[in-house]
Amino acid sequence: MTENNTLLTGQEREDYIKAHFTPETVIPETLAIEAPTTDAYEMWYDGKDEDTQALIDEISDRTSHITEESEYDEFIEELDSEGITTAGEFEDRFEGEFDYGYELLGWVEEMIDSSGYLENVPDFIKNHISYEEIWQCELRYDYSTIDLNGRIYLFRN
Asked: What does the alpha-carbon distance between residue 93 and residue 155 come to, in Å, rounded to a whole number?
């Protein structure tokens, strides 16, 4: 701090900022970029009927890798081919969003473990269970999948 500077704190500092730094001095209007009145997503969303909007909202709440309008449209088309046309049907049948390997097999392991099937099985046997084979040979027939953008979306049949 030099002799010509004064340290302002508290209300005195706030008053000085208000008096000397208006929004026009921080970003002059000539440099300000005007925000668009509506964005593409909003226009796309508003163009959908109420049921489709509810389905989009449910997809948005329950997935994390579907983000673009075209991805929603493609996913909704795939859902329709699986007989899922409403937010309620999506909510009832959706199990999860997984990568092709570890996440899906982790879900299989968790589902089997939480079902109690392995309750009395010793660890030395549990450690050698092939969850991939359980998925491929048994469980996959009870579920439908949609592949989109390198992810698997799993639904109960």
From this structure: 5
Q: How far is residue 112's CA from residue 118's CA, in Å, rounded to a whole number?
A: 7
User: Which residue type is seen at 92?
Assistant: D
96 neighbors 154 (Cβ within 8 angstroms): yes
Q: Are 98 and 107 a contacting pair, CB within 8 Å?
A: yes
Distance of CA 142 to the CA centre of its chain: 25
Under a CB-based contact definition with an 8 Å cutoff, are residues 154 and 143 in contact?
Answer: yes
The average confidence (pLDDT) of the chain is 86
The model's pTM is 0.69
Strand order in the sheet with 94-98: 94-98, 151-156, 143-148
Backbone region of residue 13 per phi and psi (left: phi > 0; alpha: psi in -120 to 50; beta: other values): alpha
